[in-house]
Amino acid sequence: MDPQLAELAAKVAALEKSSAMANTINIEVYYFWATALMVIIHAGFLAYEMGASRAKNVLATGIKNILAFGFIVPTFYFFGWWIYLAFPNGFMPSADGDAGLPWAMAMGPNLSDNATGVFWAAFTLFAATTASIFSGAVIERIKMTGFVILAILLGSVVWILGAAWGWHPTGWLTVQWGYHDFGCAGIVHLIAASFAVGVLLNLGPRIGKFNADGTANDLAAHNVPMILIGLMLIIVGFFGFLAACVIMVGGDQWTNIYGQPITLSAIAFNTLMAFAGGIIGAWALTRDPFWMMSGGLAGIIAAAAGLDFYYPPLAFLIGCFAGGTISYVHSLVLKLKIDDAVGAFAVHGWSGIVSLVACGIFCSGYPNVGDMPPVTFTGQMVGLIVCLALGFIPGYVVSLFLKVARLLRVPDEAQLMGLDLAKVPVKAYPEGHNSLALHPAE
Description:
Elements: H1 3-52, H2 58-86, H3 116-137, H4 144-166, H5 172-177, H6 185-203, H7 224-243, E1 246-249, E2 253-256, E3 261-262, H8 264-286, H9 289-304, H10 312-335, H11 344-362, H12 377-404, H13 412-417, H14 419-423, H15 434-438
Antiparallel strand pairs: 1-2, 2-3
């Protein structure tokens, strides 16, 4: 070969190698910072749930959220990631899970695999989000031991099993039914909310929540501004959550988890439009700032399943519907004498249902990659039923065992005294607080 041609070929090969490395680094950095942004979700849940508690329980609520995060990270490392890789076909594990075992080469500081830890971190933050959704529903009366057991079960076993089935390119819900859930409306939100309902049936209401005739009393939050700020922080973190739901192929093409081509423009348009729609829908029907901010979150969840495909005005309308209906759904939950302290089922469960149904209606017929069936309404309804059952059944059964073992509910005396005084060695408000002074035993 001509020496000049050989030199030119060597330079081209070097440039191609350099470009490939740059693309790899860009992808890793993208997911690293998307994951970092997702931590803001948990700052939001921390503020939101502490604000929703009465002053006598605020630190106990905060400790519960912090512990959920602390326990989810190691348990997801030791077995959660393995479940995702091993169980896409059902309850029988496959050898693919070996790559997720804690002693696998990719699960350590292996310089030949820079990506696994970053992807694991993103999924771990998803897992912690499910525990945070559940934790708000059960504030002010759950024992810490029982809560930690349930949080680990939900975050490192239950939801990731659902993800293996319906948020994995070879998951049976996808391969057999064409299930589509871009933003995890069913896989994260509906599963977590259904799990919470199963636990609440055994946990029971807070003391004083319901009267003898079944009517509900308002056990008022001690800091509504903190709730609103917390909810807004969750929205900020949601942009990281949704950013981590896309995959860059070859450095020049974005796809969803199912391999279908998408654009970040769709995510940007539809996330903001659904958020705004949820706020407006809740404002139009309640004028309540709590439900307005909750409505914004519900709007994004309600559009999440088809967020990658919707025309922005459609995402806005879906968000409006979800935001406008969540307060009524919460009222129905209360009529069933279920004390969901922050409206977790209404915001996450109901919006998850709306999301899967809407995707089944408006995305029906959208083609999947390869030989997988297209998105269908039937497939979305199968996924909806699976998510409901996968959340509710283990939540109810395991919490029933914990109830029998007296590990589920704090004693009535501790509830009346306040969990902070009974369980926490420091004071949230050492200079006093009006709600404590006026209602010490509420």
